[in-house]
Design brief:
Blueprint lengths: L5 H14 L4 E2 L3 H9 L13 H10 L8 E7 L11 H11 L1 E6 L6 H8 L5 H4 L14 H7 L4 E6 L3 H5 L6 E5 L2 H14 L4 E6 L1 H9 L4 H24 L5 E5 L6 E4 L2 E3 L5 H4 E8 L1
Parallel strand pairs: 1-3, 2-6, 2-7, 4-5, 4-6
Antiparallel strand pairs: 3-10, 7-10, 8-9
Length: 284
């Protein structure tokens, strides 16, 4: 990208980290996985690898090899404020993962903007999605450098959602479905078939339901429960099917969601409810 200023891009990510007194940005996921997998970073990556994750992986793997398999479970809108509604759910997620990386997202805090930063390692002004729209990204992404390194990558998601749309035209395989349940079942199938090195699995459930019924409605809380249950089963299945590999499982939300009415939720603002999220890593 012409005229790319890595210092300015990094400062844009750090602006929100300083505002919310956090050490990490959601954009740190891309350079972290590049370190874990032993591949180069995307050309416009301005974020930094999470040292605690990389160091923990090095300790677990005794320095004898890089991560060979990875599963990224992208649970939309499961931010830190959602822990207030179902603390038991997030305790289960933390128990499965082991590592929690408290982070801030980017503005506007909407799905295509945030996942654009998560999987490029750079702020919206650089990756090019600066509002709620879903164009195909033109900058280099984590998936481009994975494919360049010879990794087989699958993206499993709801038809026409952000993750299904903005990362198209890459040398990866796309599995698109009508429902979260179908996407989840395909993720399990791909794990068992063991033909992919990296699987990205998206769940829209909590975000979609909370928009319609409220962030702490019984229906929304059920979706948080379902996200934890799926994460637990994915961990069990990964450990069974990928037991012979250095492997990483992550729980990767994009943003949170705040109430705007008793039966309606929203996001996109620079407020703690929308901007504060954690990424969770399970390394084996």
């Amino acid at each position: 990208m012409e005229n790319f200023d890595v210092n300015a891009a990094s400062a844009e990510l750090q602006k929100f980290m300083k505002q919310y007194d956090r050490e990490h940005s959601i954009a740190d996921l891309t350079p972290t996985f590049c370190e874990l997998l032993g591949i180069r970073k995307p050309a416009t990556c301005a974020a930094s690898a999470v040292a605690s994750v990389v160091d923990h992986a090095g300790h677990i793997m005794d320095g004898i090899g890089k991560t060979k398999k990875a599963l990224l479970f992208c649970a939309d809108a499961c931010g830190n404020v959602q822990e207030n509604y179902r603390p038991d759910v997030f305790q289960r997620i933390k128990a499965v993962a082991g590592l929690e990386i408290k982070s801030t997202c980017v503005m506007p805090s909407v799905t295509p903007v945030c996942y654009g930063s998560i999987f490029t390692g750079t702020p919206p002004a650089v990756h090019g999605i600066t509002k709620y729209e879903k164009p195909v990204l033109k900058v280099e992404t984590l998936f481009d450098v994975m494919a360049e390194a010879g990794l087989n990558v699958a993206i499993v998601a709801i038809n026409s959602c952000s993750i299904d749309t903005i990362f198209r035209q890459r040398n990866v395989d796309y599995y698109s479905f009508r429902t979260d349940e179908m996407s989840y079942q395909m993720t399990l199938q791909l794990l068992r078939e063991n033909k992919y090195d990296v699987i990205i699995s998206y769940m829209t459930g909590y975000d979609a339901v909370a928009h319609k019924t409220g962030v702490d409605s019984p229906e929304a809380k059920e979706e948080l429960e379902l996200a934890a249950k799926r994460f637990e089963v994915l961990a069990e299945t990964m450990d069974e099917c990928w037991k012979d590999y250095h492997r990483v499982l992550t729980f990767v939300p994009d943003h949170g969601q705040h109430p705007v009415a008793p039966t309606q939720g929203s996001h996109g603002e620079n407020c703690p409810e929308d901007m504060q999220v954690s990424h969770y890593y399970r390394i084996r």
